[in-house]
Amino acid sequence: MTVMIVHNCWYLYLPYLTWLYFDWWTPETGGRKSNLIRNWTFWRHLKDYFPIHLIKTHDLDPSHNYIFASHPHGIVTAGSMGNFCVNRSDFQKLFPGLNLYFHSNSCLFLFPLLREYVLSLGLVSVSKKSLSYLLSEEGRGNVSVVIIGGAKESLDAHPGTFMLYLRQRKGFVKLALTHGAYLVPVFSFGENDLYKQIHNPKGSWLRNVQDRLQRSMTFALPVIYGRGIFQQSFGILPHRKPIHTVVGRPIPVQQTLHPTQEQIDELHQTYMEELRKLFEEHKGKYGVAEHETLTLQ
């Protein structure tokens, strides 16, 4: 059967493999957006389903490059994807002159056809090479959106929780210093409320299995459930919970080509303090109880 497929369909896969050979590094060099796909009406319906909102707190100068450090990962990163991957949010109106690039797990670009789809949405690799390529472009107003907690954080994405993997994540800070990119904390209130997750505390057999799979595959497999089409108790659809993605104050960063560990630690501490301030200032507006605080791992 395989021989028949290879023999009869070479005219389909051979041109595509040739294309892949010459196009392989595109996810590392700015990607390839398609406004045709980013403008689909489907994205407007998706935005209105939850709904998803974008909140601006400060102006951003398009003469600088930025790293949007986005939190939390949640299960499906709906807030960040809905606001920064498609053209149905108010981003261009609120932040004119800025070019968005959403950095995602590099394994997405290993699958034929899926690769072309995610590239068309504006996704690029989350690798150091990819970030450096965009942030080294001076004066172009590039915005690299990075979900700092990564896939590991999704395993702690339970409704009403605010646990972030951040204390040991300093690579984005080093890149900001190396390229002089301003750091911007971004928090999506409501992101963790879209799905319920089977109880998986650290040390449980389920969490141990999930952690092993995450380390080997680079993406996590949370056991989740949402709502159905006609009822809200169980199903695969996410719950209709409003998401408010708040873009915080930009932290100015002086370019330092070879930052020391002390400089990295100092800026990282400043970033964590700014993120806490952002959370505390806005949590009451978006349904978070006064006693709730961020937990940083």
UniProtKB/TrEMBL annotation:
Localization of this protein? Endoplasmic reticulum membrane
Quote the protein name from its UniProt record: 2-acylglycerol O-acyltransferase 1
Q: Which GO terms describe its biological process?
A: diacylglycerol biosynthetic process; glycerol metabolic process; triglyceride biosynthetic process
Q: How does it sit in the membrane?
A: Multi-pass membrane protein
Its pathway is: Glycerolipid metabolism; triacylglycerol biosynthesis; Lipid metabolism
Quote the catalytic activity from the record: a 1-acyl-sn-glycerol + an acyl-CoA = a 1,3-diacyl-sn-glycerol + CoA; a 1-acylglycerol + an acyl-CoA = a 1,2-diacylglycerol + CoA; a 2-acylglycerol + an acyl-CoA = a 1,2-diacyl-sn-glycerol + CoA; a 1-acylglycerol + an acyl-CoA = a 1,3-diacylglycerol + CoA
Give the E.C. number(s): 2.3.1.22
Q: What class of enzyme is it?
A: transferase
Tell me its family: Belongs to the diacylglycerol acyltransferase family.
Question: Under the cellular component aspect of Gene Ontology, which terms does the record hold?
Answer: endoplasmic reticulum membrane
- MF terms in GO: 2-acylglycerol O-acyltransferase activity; diacylglycerol O-acyltransferase activity
Pfam families under this entry? DAGAT
**Keywords, sorted A to Z:** Acyltransferase, Endoplasmic reticulum, Glycerol metabolism, Glycoprotein, Lipid biosynthesis, Lipid metabolism, Membrane, Transferase, Transmembrane, Transmembrane helix
Q: Provide the primary localization.
A: endoplasmic reticulum
